Amino acid sequence: MKQETIDRIRRFTEDRDWEQFHTPANLAKSISIEANELLECFQWSDTDYDLDHVKEELADVLVYCRDMLDRLGFDEDEIVNAKMDRNEAKYPVEKAKGSAVKYDKLTSDSAGEERVMKQFGMTREQTQILNVPAQEMGLERFTAELRRNLERLLDREEADKLMTEYAEKIPEYYDANKTVAGVTPAMIWHFG
Question: Which pLDDT score is estimated for 179?
């Protein structure tokens, strides 16, 4: 936000002697209220909404956030960058890319698992059948277990097709992940 805009927000509040009402609790409530008014713009449609109304409600949220920053003496760049550092640690690209899974449920195969679920119309429970313990398992056994688990979910022809399609990636994948406690073949599709 430009400094002249920040100054204008501050001047608006000061000119009306509203600082007395800007307690952290009141500002947090106001942010929440305005965020809900923003949400209301999309209440009945994800695509048919009044863009001017969205801008107005979003501006209200930003103004109250700016007021909260001032009240608490926070620097927006500092707190946003600190939060981004935490988010980047919780959601590493190699685990989170293409996945909407929350960080505490995120595994290195979440994105691939979701693609497999979508591609083959599987539920999450069905993909769990694919889990193959990789610790201290040789490549040959790993590949055999992978095939066997795929055949539990798919017909033999479809399992053969997948095994052939990803045959070159299985050894590379196994080497990279053999120390993981449990490995799903969904992770192989992550590289596809």
Answer: 55
Residue with tokens 């040789």: 138
CB 129 within 8 A of CB 151: no
- From 44, 72, 90, the end of a domain falls on 90
Do 61 and 103 belong to one domain? no
Give the residue numbers spanning the domain of 30.
Answer: 3-90
Mean pLDDT over residues 84-112, rounded?
72
Q: What sign does the CA torsion over 107, 112, 116, 118 have?
A: positive
Angle between helices 3-15 and 51-72 (to 10 degrees): 80
| The model scores a pTM over 0.90 | no
The answer to whether residues 10 and 86 belong to one domain is: yes
Helix (H) or strand (E) holding 67: helix 51-72
Domains: count for the chain: 2
